[in-house]
Amino acid sequence: MSKEPVAVVGIGQTKHVAARRDVSIAGLVREAARCALDDAELTWADIDAVVIGKAPDFFEGVMMPELYLADALGAVGKPMLRVHTAGSVGGSTALVAANLVAARVHRTVLTLAFEKQSESNAMWGLSLPIPFQQPLLAGAGGFFAPHVRAYMRRTGAPDTVGSLVAYKDRRNALKNSYAHLHEHDLTLEKVQASPMLWDPIRYSETCPSSDGACAMILTDRTGAARSPHPAAWVHGGAMRSEPTLFAGKDFVSPQAGKDCAADVYRQAGITAPRRQIDAVEMYVPFSWYEPMWLENLGFAEEGEGWKLTESGVTELDGDLPVNPSGGVLSTNPIGASGMIRFAEAALQVRGQAGEHQVDGARRALGHAYGGGSQFFSMWLVGADAPAT
Amino acid sequence: MRDVAIVAFGQSDHVRDSAETSEVEMLMPVLHDVLAQTGLAARDIDFTCSGSSDYLAGRAFSFTMALDGVGAWPPISESHVEMDGAWALYEAWVKLLTGEAETALVYAYGKSSPGEVRDVLTRQLDPYYLAPLWPDSVALAALQARALIDAGLTDERALAGIAARSRAAAASHPHAQLRGEVPAGELLVAPLRTGDCPPIGDGAAAVVLAAGDTARRLTGRPAWIRGLDHRIEAHSPGVRDLTDSPSTRLAAERAGAFTRPVDTAELHAPFTSQEVVLRRALRLDAPDSRVCVNPSGGALAANPVMAAGLIRLGEAAARIQRGASDRALAHATSGPCLQHNLVAVLEGE
Fold it and tell me: Which residue ranges does the record assign to the Thiolase C-terminal domain (chain A) (predicted)?
């Protein structure tokens, strides 16, 4: 049976900052949704359904906030779905919305993800004590640092690679007006001299805590034909999950990530990702995850990812730009971070990424992960409609 | 549209307090039950989707541990909604409609016992204006009941009748928490008595979906999903007519519920007064109506938060599967005073 092709015709983001004290949660999400509608030149009445995602409800202290946000998102009288798949949620949310169009259940769908971390404290929101379970050790960095060490030991990567990623992403963020961190005076030396937080992860190699929201308008072939701006077409999308903790788990390169990428590439007809994909928006909350995911996603052979990073391939003007937007290292409203990756990939193939546009980008990958490297969601978008 | 059916349904025994079992332990037998019914193993399932709420568990990412119980190895295609499992079923149904999957496992669970569920549910209200007042779920339902009585649409005796009928229906239900003759009880929040309110309990449920011939292969009489739709209303009770449920009516229309009569309706009405609202919205009170409403006893017999809606779909499907129904309506609700409603129409062949 045939699926309806899905097009991204509207993209909106808020300016991401540490604390948006000028807006409520409703005001924050409405701002992003309004931007996406304006981009698509559509009104609230054109939207058939709303799919919303965010990471744990404890981050804002509101249980199932979509109930309260129905009015702000023009959802009254419409279907509204709330997705939650940990850190991968922004990507998963977009995929659930895309499926509504692909299945021909709805023609035009607003999808949105947000986090207003300033409403409470994300680190402690993740650290509620549970009997008989391993705590997250005061935030995500404590959980991920040993796996970075394992990667370094396994591949022999020099300990300078992480700082190169951080320095690159923060420089890219200077070209993205929506990015949270704009560190104009940052140097590689400053990254390397920043305090060690969770050995080997330094302060400047970690993501910030941001308030922000990202929205997209997804539509069918007919909707895309009416779009005033170029559409980004979804060529493939997939989610994969595996258990958090078990004896066979490879934390350096989880099988679920490999399987997810393989599924997306199969759908999109990608056989040589390094050659066929022009830009990657990758979920890199700690700098060392760039080389790790380069291998996991099939852009480099196992043990070789750090060499791509070190040789400048992933720079904005490199052969395979990774995180031209500045990535999660520069902007991290957790629940929205995955959707920002998906949306930035779409901006690239629409040719609308502004100062951080990758020249001639025709195919781009959006990637998100969550939990203890447990949940993955990805999509591949192209400038051309998929062959049917 | 592709034919998709519910081919298996299972649920736990719903209990007031399951302190001795974790969520995973509560869920595992239910998962094994539905898989055994179809002869499928976890690895045969193309897509998995669950519904639950971190606020009941009192911790972030609570669904990750339940996933371990599913046995997500080798890695599975999986998603989660922070909603009642009825909406997880909706997401899975859409996935099957795309043709990307032939089978789906849907599950939901909720433990209300670790906290005070009335207090916990206040946290799902508008955080700036409503939640600081701590209006709990019973108080909000009582407002709705009062509005219905004031409008002359029901009275306390009729509400007590709904409670008695539901619990009598549940008398022979092996999983029900509250059944048989239950006293109307004292006023809890006027005009609602304890008998008008659902039991507070812990429970889990699971469903297997399958498409077309796969569904026929897996069960003798699949419960085909002929229509499925859900709609949300404004949040603030102050801007809504609490005696009506336009979102339920619209969802039912979109699901095709009004094109032909149904013989069964499984309504997710945790409070007796909410059944009055739903019956009106769904036109179940016609004088010649032969609809059997909540033969399972409904949410008044067992209301595990986050699973109770999925259970309505499962109960309706099970009734079709065993030949007691040919066309059934199933309903799930979420949010204060029936804010968000889902309607499914299920048919036997």
Answer: 243-372
